[in-house]
Write a structure and sequence with these properties.
The structure is a homodimer. By secondary structure, chain A is α/β, with parallel strands linked by helices. Chain A folds into two domains: 115 residues, Rossmann fold; 192 residues, P-loop containing nucleotide triphosphate hydrolases (Rossmann fold, 3-Layer(aba) Sandwich), CATH 3.40.50. Chain A contains eleven helices and eleven strands. In chain A, strands 7-8-6-9-10-11 form a six-stranded parallel β-sheet, sandwiched between helices. In chain A, strands 2-1-3-4-5 form a five-stranded parallel β-sheet, sandwiched between helices. In chain A, strand 1, helix 1 and strand 2 form a beta-alpha-beta unit. At the A-B interface, helix 7 and helix 8 of A face helix 7 and helix 8 of B.
Chain lengths: 343, 343
């Protein structure tokens, strides 16, 4: 396991979506975070104390979380330089980037000299098998998206917590670096060898017979030309009984691809249902989750109502409005109301 | 490059589909093959002289091609033992399996001692980028399939040769181990890290402006629960102007998955066209290719005629009947008739 407490890295980032791993840690493991590291040109903050590496070590931090991610997951010169400084200050370093920390000779040497560890959480399991699509027992929900970074992980965690608050066994199955860092386990599905995408998910959420739910974090979008292959293999491997579609209203274009419009919600949901039926013929949509953090509460509620009317499914912002409407549809017999989990 | 001539490995295989790499080499590079290696329990043959490793070396063979493939691409004890015998006889060894030859300590040591090479053709390029789906110039055709191993590679090569015989520039873009061994280049798309599936194909078939065609070998099937993610990423990366759907009539179930029926041809074609439109809005289907090798010539012709009537597209067996009907639709202005390329 990666030693807490953590220092969260923002670096030079100016793009709120690029720091989503650090933000996820600040949101879901805040009690384990002593501060944030950012350069002077970084306009973003997670609301944690701004610390340099030495200050963080003095404040008790044990690991720098390189919680930033661009397409391609490259470990650029800035990240290497700052990681080296962290190691020199006595911090372990954890990263979810494709490019591995241990493959940088300078960082590998520094870590060895100081007796510190480099954690590459995107390393796939060694023993993956090809997926088979055989029906397996268990209750599985998958979040899917109109795009990358629209709130699939947050939604999945909120649904997991909500089910638990209703007394139903539920496990969050992380498929991306942020989720894995939060949960402490999972598989970075975009980092497995392509032949094993669906097999990795069959292994992550295997047959279960305790009436509990596996809540599987989706990745990418069937409509994203960079990552749709990952999304489809994940969908087939998840063999979901239930889908929740996630969206960020008002996004101007698909993540990283100016000029490419997001799909219509209904079209996106139907495409996911059609594809999911290959391994889960009775799959159903149980709700829509929007990230309405740019809207005020009234506008968010109105937006959700209008989507509910249009698609005939509960729609909510899981952070602002909770996920009860979706849980009521997913498990109608469960009566305990969850409270709003996050704010 | 992998030194010819070759000895083709069949091993203990009893499944004709498992030896498709060796068969592909025997079909398309027969002049470079001195023989086949098979154990006594192997009922298959490629019609080449049966040689053991020493006999093959004496006959001039320079490389053993481990041309067999099961799901998962494992390098089992038999393959390791036989590869060691080949190295001891002075042969290089080439493999398209996921598990790499060089990762077996015994083979690595033997190769080093004898000054021989281990070729792992599934190694992906080091410099892959994430796909973008941006429109790029060029003419691209992709073969897609109802299932794995239904003739996509053979079809792609036949179309490439046919275009060349009509005086049109055409390049075969290999995406699997067999195609790469035949062409001497390409990228094994099922072996790239999942995030880079579409990016790998954008790099394999980049923008071109010489009026020539890239003919891209498809992999798997959108309807195969093990591999559909690879097929979709490949489809998006290929950005095809034209699709050819490949099928093996009469196959009892999806490859490796007893009980799972193959998709209907029209449904499969429509799903591929719908998915392809994400990066190539004007994509068109230009033909159907069937592997009718189990039928006699008359039955094959009748089958093709009935598919033509049903789908309104030219249908042929590329090996038995050639690909002229498809080329006439693809490039109506080209008049030179190709001959049947293979028999």
């Amino acid at each position: 396991m990666i030693p807490a407490p953590f220092l969260l890295y923002l670096g030079h980032s100016a793009d709120p979506l690029a720091i989503k791993t650090s933000r996820g840690m600040a949101m879901f493991r805040r009690e384990d975070c002593v501060g944030e590291f950012r350069h002077d040109d970084c306009p973003l903050t997670l609301g944690l104390p701004r610390l340099n590496m030495k200050e963080a070590a003095a404040a008790g931090a044990r690991t720098l979380i390189l919680g930033i991610a661009g397409a391609g997951g490259k470990l650029g010169p800035d990240l290497i330089e700052d990681s080296a400084t962290a190691l020199e200050a006595g911090l372990h370093v954890a990263s979810g980037l494709h490019q591995r920390l241990r493959d940088d000779p300078r960082l590998a040497a520094l870590a060895q000299q100081r007796g510190l560890e480099l954690f590459d959480v995107r390393d796939p399991p060694a023993d993956l098998a090809v997926g088979k699509g055989e029906r397996r027992p268990g209750n599985r929900l998958l979040t899917v998206g109109t795009d990358c970074s629209v709130g699939k992980m947050v939604t999945t965690i909120a649904l997991t917590e909500g089910l638990r608050q209703r007394g139903i066994r539920a496990d969050f199955r992380a498929t991306g670096q942020t989720g894995i860092l939060i949960a402490g386990e999972g598989v970075a599905v975009d980092a497995v060898v392509a032949d094993f995408i669906s097999g990795a998910i069959e292994q992550l959420a295997p047959a279960r017979s305790d009436d509990g739910w596996d809540l599987i974090e989706g990745q990418g979008s069937l409509f994203h030309p960079s990552f749709a292959g990952v999304s489809l293999g994940l969908l087939h491997g998840a063999q979901p009984d239930a889908l929740v579609l996630c969206d960020e209203p008002g996004r101007p274009h698909m993540r990283g691809i100016p000029g490419r419009a997001l799909p219509d919600l209904a079209e996106c949901l139907e495409a996911n249902l059609a594809a999911a039926r290959l391994t889960s013929p009775d799959v159903e949509a149980v709700g829509i989750c929007v990230n309405a953090s740019r809207l005020d509460a009234l506008a968010a509620r109105r937006l959700c109502d209008s989507i509910e009317d249009r698609l005939g499914l509960p729609c909510t912002d899981p952070v602002a409005l909770g996920v009860d409407a979706i849980l009521d549809k997913l498990c109608p017999e469960s009566s305990t109301r969850s409270t709003i989990a996050f704010r």
